[in-house]
Amino acid sequence: MRLVIVGASGRMGLAIARVAASTNGVKIVGAVDRPDAPGCGRDIGELAGVGAIGVSLSADLPAVLVGADVMVDFSAPTATARNLAAAAAAGVAALVGTTGLDAAAQSAANDAARRVPVIIAANTSLGVTLLIELVRAASYALPEDFDIEIIEGHHRHKKDAPSGTALALGHAAAEGRSVSLDSVAVPARTGGERERGEIGFAVVRGGDIVGDHTVLFAGEGERVSLVHQATDRAIFARGAVRAASWLSGRTPGRYEMRDVLPFKTRA
Ligand code: NAD
After folding, report:
1. Which residues line ligand 1 (CB under 6 A)?
2. Considering only CA atoms, which residue is closest to atom 18 of ligand 1?
3. 96, 114, 92: which is closest to 105 by C-alpha?
4. pLDDT band at 35, cuts 50/70/90?
5. Burial (Cβ within 10 Å: 0-12, 13-18, ≥19) of residue 42
6. CB–CB of 45/16 below 8 Å?
7. Residue of 154, 171, 213, 228 marked catalytic
8. pLDDT for 119-172, tens place per residue?
9. With helix as H, strand as E and coil as C, how does the chain read?
C-alpha cells in the first residue's frame, strides 16, 4: 500500500510515519505539510527518527499523490476539503483523522466518496472503535432501567469537555435505545435525583492522563462497566495505518472505522 501522509511533520503525522515505516506491505511515497513547516525538504524518516527512507517533506500534495494508493490526513480542518478534492482527482483513497471538520469538509468528503473510498474518523484507535460498538450493543440489549453514565479522564491541558470520544460513546448508547443523545444527555450533573433514561457524563481532568473512558450500565443489584484506557498516543497511528491498508482497493464510498474491524455477527 503506497501511502501519502498529510500533516506529516505534526505529532500524529510523525507517529504515522514511524508506524508505517515498520509495517510490512506499507510504503510511504509522500509526506506533505505546509510550505513554511520546519523540516520542509528533509527526509520524513529522519524527521520521524527512523532513519532516511528517501521521501522528502513537501508542500505539493497533487504531485506526491500521483501513483499513491491512500492519503492519510492529520493536518488542520481548514485544509481538509482541499486535500480531499486533490485525493479524489488523483483517484487516491482518503482517511481523514483531522478533527473539528466543518460542513464544507463533510460535503467535500461526500463529493470525494463518489470517486474514491473515504473514512472520516475522529478517533482511529481500534480499541475505541470496538468499545463504541460494544456500547451500542449493550445499550440495545439492556432494558432502560439500567442507568447509563459515561466517565472520562484526560490530561490537564485538554481543551474540550466532555471529550469527542465520550460524546461518540454517548451517541452509540443513545442509538442503542433509539433516542437522540441531545434529548437525554446530562453533560455535567449537579444536585438532584437522576431521571430515568438519562445518559450522564462525568469528566476528570488531571496530570498526563492520555485518555480513559468508562461506560457504566448500572442496574438494580448489578453493574456492567465497559472500559478503554489509552496509555500511548501511538494507538491512533496504528489504527490509522490499519484503516488505510483496509481502504486500499475498496470501491468508492463513505466507510467508518467500525468497517475496519471484523465483527462476527450471529449466523
Ligand atoms: P499538530 O499540530 O502536531 O500537527 C498538524 C500538522 O498539520 C502540522 O505539522 C501542520 O503544519 C500541518 N498542517 C496544517 N495545515 C496544513 C495544510 N494546509 N497542509 C498540510 N499540512 C498542514 O497536530 P496533531 O496533534 O498531529 O493533530 C492533527 C489533527 O489530528 C488534529 O485535528 C487532531 O485533533 C487530530 N487527531 C486525531 C486523532 C484521531 O484518532 N483521529 C488522534 C489525534 C489527533
Report:
1. 6-7, 9-13, 32-34, 37, 74-76, 79, 97-100, 121-124, 236
2. 79
3. 96
4. very high
5. middle
6. no
7. 154
8. 999 899 999 999 999 999 999 999 999 999 999 999 999 888 999 899 999 999
9. CEEEEECCCCHHHHHHHHHHHCCCCCEEEEEECCCCCCCCCCEHHHHHCCCCCCCEEECCHHHHHCCCCEEEECCCHHHHHHHHHHHHHHCCEEEECCCCCCHHHHHHHHHHCCCCEEEECCCCCHHHHHHHHHHHHHHHHCCCCCEEEEEEEECCCCCCCCCHHHHHHHHHHHHHCCCCHHHHEECCCCCCCCCCCCEEEEEEECCCCCEEEEEEEECCCCEEEEEEEECCCHHHHHHHHHHHHHHCCCCCEEECHHHHCCCCCCC
- The predicted-structure confidence for 43-102, as pLDDT tens digits, reads as follows 999 999 999 999 999 999 999 999 999 999 999 999 999 999 999 999 999 999 998 888
- Residue 106 contacts residue 130 (beta carbons within 8 Å): no
C-alpha cell at 228: 478503554
Q: Which three cell numbers stand for residue 104?
A: 464544507
> What is the sign, positive or negative, of the torsion defined by CA atoms of 135, 140, 142, 147?
positive
pTM: 0.90
In this structure, the residue with its CA closest to atom 35 of ligand 1 is 98
Q: Which residue has the cell 506499507?
A: 26
Grid coordinates 491512500 are at which residue?
70
What length does the chain have?
A: 267
> What gap in Å lies between CA 193 and CA 172, rounded to an integer?
24
